[in-house]
Amino acid sequence: MHNAQNLIVCENCDSVYRRHTLARGQVADCTVCGAVLDRYQWLSVEGQFALIVAALVVFLIANVSPIVTLGLSGMSADTTLWGAIITMWMDGAQLVSVLTAMTLFFFPLSQLLIFGWVLGFARKGLRAPGFRTAMSVLVRVKPWSMIEVFMLGTLVAVVKAHTYFDVATRPGIWAYGFLTILITVFSSHDARHLWNLTHKARA
Amino acid sequence: MSTPPRAIDIGIMSCHVCTLVIERSDDPHARCPRCLNRVHVRKKNSIATSWALLLSAAMFYIPANIFPIMRTASLSSIDDNTILSGIAELWKAGSPGLAVIVFTASIVVPVLKFIIMGILLISVQRSSGFIARQRAKLYRFVELIGYWSMLDVFVVAILSALVHFKILSRVEPLPGVVYFGVVVVLTMLSAMSFDPRLIWDNRKSQ
Hints:
Chain A has seven helices and seven strands, in the order ββββαββααααβαα. Chain A has helices spanning 45-64, 81-90, 94-122, 131-141, 147-162, 171-186, 194-197, and strands at 7-9, 16-18, 27-29, 36-39, 68-72, 75-79, 166-169.
């Protein structure tokens, strides 16, 4: 195909456009259906890699530290994400338990690890081993990562519990809040740009 | 500005996974030369799959609302809450703002998804050219809001893990929450199997 690299096909309506280099803050919208074709990637590969490393650290903190503590007449109880996953399993809601583990732990974690792996090599302009698979997995996993929803869910749970118990926030909830911000920053970046930014190690 | 050409008309297509633009191929086993994933001009059996998933989701939505999703047990009482009664309780407990958020995520979003996906599927089946741009927007809206319905499921999970004060006070998940989780996953899958480009194919009128 001639010049196929210069073309963009709108994923929502199939319109074909010539690719333009975008300036800072620019977004290319499809004139037919209004979908976003391309965004200016304001973070360099280096910057994205740094963010991923930060997100991994925060993810770790979010998972090991308790989210909130409840107090009731001298007793107290707290939980982590895994506490919730295990409770759901024990209480007969195994399907929900698996769903929670997938959307809040395994998918986000694999997203972070795979993206980090690919970006690490992309810093030198290289395609990481397993690049193809990694990039395909990233695209497939993306819609199933639900950290933001969990963040809002904890807030609702805290308010609900507040009526009957003493509630104390713990580091976990802040870590999830921070993670939500990092994810929002990332959402304007399309991993698929890496296909054009990297080349195979051997020609 | 003139309307841009459509890929299907000028003999090209793009890979769903890596966006590489390649020559059009109607071979069902065609693969993208760059990422090696299957490529196809349009998603396969898009309408039938999307309908099937949507209707199953709608069916599961009934038990999800009828059955209670959470039990709050204390020394003196056992209180089972459905999605709606949970929202009502949250409203009365003095956080109407939050009640509105939960109501939006658990009731408004799923119902909107059923209606919008239904409209999209029917209009595509009738090759309607009516307000195509608006329908395209509706589709993107459904994709954007889809997963927020998991909110209530996560709330139940956290509360069940937290409220564990032996006989004094205890929160447990009930079957409704499982049905509800299934509804969310099915509606997401339904939206994903729908091919929005069908909105623009074979339009009777412009």
